Amino acid sequence: MMAPMRLAGTLVILTMAFLSGLRPESWDPCVQVVPNVTYQCMELNLYKIPDNMPISTKELDMSFNPLKHLGRHSFSNYLELQVLDLSRCEINIIEDDAFHGLNQLSSLILTGNPIQSLALGAFSGLSNLQRLVALEISLASLEDFPIGDLKTLEELNVAHNFIDSFKLPDYFSNLTNLEHLDLSKNNIQNIYHGDLQILYQRPLTKLSLDLSLNPLKFIQPGAFKEIKLHQLTLRSTFNSTDTMKTCIQGLVGLKTDQLVLGEFKNERQIESFNRSLLDGLCDMTIGEFEITFFREFSEKTTDFLNCLANVSAVSLSSLDLSELPKFSSDLRWQYLELVRCSFENFPELMLKSLKRLVFSYNRGLSTFTELELPNLEFLDLKRNALTFKHCCSHTYFGTTRLKYLDLSFNAVIIMTSNFLGLEQLEHLDFQHSTLRQASDFSVFLSLKNLLYLDLSYTNIHVVFHGIFHGLASLQVLKMAGNSFQDDSLPNIFMGLTELMFLDLSNCKLEQVSQGAFDSVPRLQVLNMSHNNLLFLDALPYKPLLNLQVLDCSYNRIVDSKGQELHHFPSSLASLNLTWNAFSCVCEHQSFLQWVKDQKRLLVAAEQMECASPIDMQGVPVLSFRNATCQMRKTVITVSVLTVFVVSALAILSYKFYFRLMLLVGCKKYGRGESTYDAFVIYSSQDEDWVRNELVKNLEEGVPHFQLCLHYRDFIPGVAIAANIIQEGFHKSRKVIVVVSQHFIQSRWCIFEYEIAQTWQFLSSRAGIIFIVLQKVEKSLLRQQVELYRLLSRNTYLEWEDSVLGRHIFWRRLRKALLVGKPWSPEGTADAESNQHEATTAT
Ligand SMILES: *[C@@H]1O[C@H](CO)[C@@H](O)[C@H](O)[C@H]1NC(C)=O
Ligand SMILES: *[C@@H]1O[C@H](CO)[C@@H](O)[C@H](O)[C@H]1NC(C)=O
Ligand SMILES: *[C@@H]1O[C@H](CO)[C@@H](O)[C@H](O)[C@H]1NC(C)=O
Ligand SMILES: *[C@@H]1O[C@H](CO)[C@@H](O)[C@H](O)[C@H]1NC(C)=O
Ligand SMILES: *[C@@H]1O[C@H](CO)[C@@H](O)[C@H](O)[C@H]1NC(C)=O
Ligand SMILES: *[C@@H]1O[C@H](CO)[C@@H](O)[C@H](O)[C@H]1NC(C)=O
Ligand SMILES: *[C@@H]1O[C@H](CO)[C@@H](O)[C@H](O)[C@H]1NC(C)=O
Ligand SMILES: *[C@@H]1O[C@H](CO)[C@@H](O)[C@H](O)[C@H]1NC(C)=O
């Protein structure tokens, strides 16, 4: 039933998908990124704006559709649009009021449309537009661009067009919020004084102007005089040293917060650098100076830096600088950045004013040399392959004000001092450098203000437990990729009471000592991934009252030991247990169930797969069925119980087999059908006495008694036990037990006696007569508790080998046997003298 219906459903869906391919507007093909808010209709071969999206749509990506033509009121269905991307929509024509009503629109992207006709009122109504990106729209001049009404515009990007004049049109007086004007990769060759006229009337002091990649040949000297910009970028703008020199001189009088010069890696035109090239810099007022990608830039040509004495920040990156010149001491630089230069020696920097030094990605150096920078607060020396031989103290860096120190991705760092004089340090990063002697003493002892410490992958082998002493303010500690003695995490976090983030991933950890987290009660993030933990509760969770994120992925966790999970932090919001060695067998079912119960916390729960047993490999852990175990458990319990009951029954029926037979027999024979007067139980050792005395006296005397004796009366071929019961007990009125030393010692006799007792009980006859043949040792008798009790409570006959004794014995025995004997002619003699004669044993 199900299969055909499903098939039919699939067919319907396929047909609809096919039809939708033919008529795109009839079907909603756009991707809903955020429901009712963000839709992506990229590259769907749409010819017009789809009209079936919610009117509340705020972000719409229509890029790479052949719209070709934007008519009036093209977006009247989506008046709440804030971001509209129309990149590469082959748009040729934009009519008046195309964006009518989009007064929420803040960002419009028109990149890559070969616009031929742009109506004067094309952008009218965009009363809130802040960002207009119009690269590659075949724009030939700013003058013709109808954006004069976009008073809220902050960013105008018209790079990669054919603009050949830098004349800023009059409408710029309306663009009072403009902060970014990107004119790079246009065709501007000359800049004249009049081009910036509008900026004199309406200064745009926050403007960042990018003129990179224009073939600039000439800047009229004084064109920028008194102009204040935030940033001016001129990269790969000059195709010769001559033009560069004259153009820079032409910038005389410019005030700018930042000047960016240089080239692009793949757009290098200047062949040789000439020391007078940047002389013009002396005539400008520059806040920060940046120069990048200049070939042939050597220390001999760095004189120009003297023109930059008053700048606050200098950045020299990707230059062929092998050495720095000696700086004059009146430089006022506060920030210096030297990145990706080809220094051969660590530069000698004597800059009293310097607060921030970034010296990174400089290959080709080997050893760090001491600094003398008394005001330095921020030192970034990452990725230089440097060796530090005496780290770290205030004399090493020549400052006591250091707050930020980054020595990551270097070569070897030898720890010889515990940051003496660097007590201000707040951020310290050593990652991926090789630390030596870090575990020999309390290296961080002075750093009571340190907040952040990264020691990841520094080859530390932690032996000394006091390694982190002194870090009283530390909040973040990254120890990934190191190792610990015995692969066990000792209690090394004493005093780190502020710690919130701890990364111990990739540390080969197998165990965690019980007190390890006792002193980090504020811990929020604990990363234990990529270790060798076998149990989830290898960690002592009890002190971690604020833990929110726990990453135990990539371990070998199979189970929990049970106790610690009770202390599992209730504050936890994220638990990553992916890539562990989950064993999906019933043995671990309570752990697996616990894991399933934490589903709300689990990260990528669907990626948690069983690693064993083989038939469960790759099966999601969460699909492990508890019920299977329950069933298996029930089956096992039931079978065990059954086996137990059956065997108990078997043992019982084996043990009480004879009793059962007796019971059956009692019902069958009933009373009064006895063939014998008495069945005699005796030990074969006493057979002589039985034959010669008992049988002679009772069977040959008067009255005549018929005894049942096994040697004589048992039916051959029948099991002895069956004979005992059928012939002996069932057909006899009474049982005579001949008690002697041998009788007590014979297990068979005792067995017969026990059966006799049961028989007496079942047939409710007072029928057992005890004859004590010889004195039995009391101690021996006591072993047969029942018999002993009976003999001490009841009367019994004692055999005496004297004439008188015999006479009394036989009289009493006959009398006892006569009780209940049915009348017979020969047996009347003493029948009426039925008196009780007994001896009470003591
Ligand atoms: C989307 O908008 C429709 C109609 O305005 C509304 O019914 C629906 O609940 C909205 N969906 C979401 C996820 O906001
Ligand atoms: C400035 O904006 C006003 C009002 O939108 C407009 O009338 C005027 O033409 C604009 N000025 C220029 C130079 O475009
Ligand atoms: C620089 O540009 C001019 C004009 O575009 C051209 O004639 C000249 O060959 C270029 N020089 C170099 C070195 O590319
Ligand atoms: C530097 O360039 C200028 C102009 O191109 C030239 O006159 C001067 O000789 C050059 N000086 C050096 C040292 O190359
Ligand atoms: C730096 O500023 C001082 C005064 O503030 C001035 O005398 C000096 O000429 C300036 N130096 C340069 C290179 O602009
Ligand atoms: C834990 O560390 C591993 C590798 O070191 C990393 O991939 C993972 O993102 C970290 N987890 C958290 C929660 O930061
Ligand atoms: C574990 O999950 C967390 C939270 O999503 C994530 O940040 C972390 O990267 C994951 N760990 C690994 C090793 O991917
Ligand atoms: C799964 O088993 C555990 C213990 O073995 C039990 O506490 C839990 O209630 C069971 N869950 C279900 C859904 O059967």
- How much of the residues is beta strand, in percent? 15-25%
Overall radius of gyration: 54 Å
Helix content bin: 10-25%
List low-confidence stretches. 9-27, 826-842
Mean pLDDT: 86
Q: Please work out how many helical segments DSSP would assign.
A: 15
For the secondary structure, the number of strands is 41
Distance between the termini: 91 Å
What form results from the Cα inertia axes?
A: elongated
Helix/strand class: alpha/beta
Bound ligands = 2-acetamido-2-deoxy-beta-D-glucopyranose
Label this structure with key terms.
alpha/beta, 24-stranded mixed β-sheet, five-stranded parallel β-sheet, binds 2-acetamido-2-deoxy-beta-D-glucopyranose
Can you walk through the features of this model?
It contains 15 helices and 41 strands. Helix 7 (657-669) packs parallel to helix 10. The strands form seven sheets. It has a 24-stranded mixed beta sheet, with no helix packed on it. Helix 8 (687-699) links the parallel strand 37 and strand 38. The protein has 842 residues and is α/β, with parallel strands linked by helices. 35% of the residues are buried. The two termini are 91 Å apart. Bound molecules: 2-acetamido-2-deoxy-beta-D-glucopyranose (8 copies). One 2-acetamido-2-deoxy-beta-D-glucopyranose binds next to helix 3.
Question: What would you say about this model in short?
Answer:
The chain is α/β, with parallel strands linked by helices and 842 residues long. It is 20% helix and 19% strand. The longest helix is centred in the last third of the chain and has 30 residues, at 626-655.
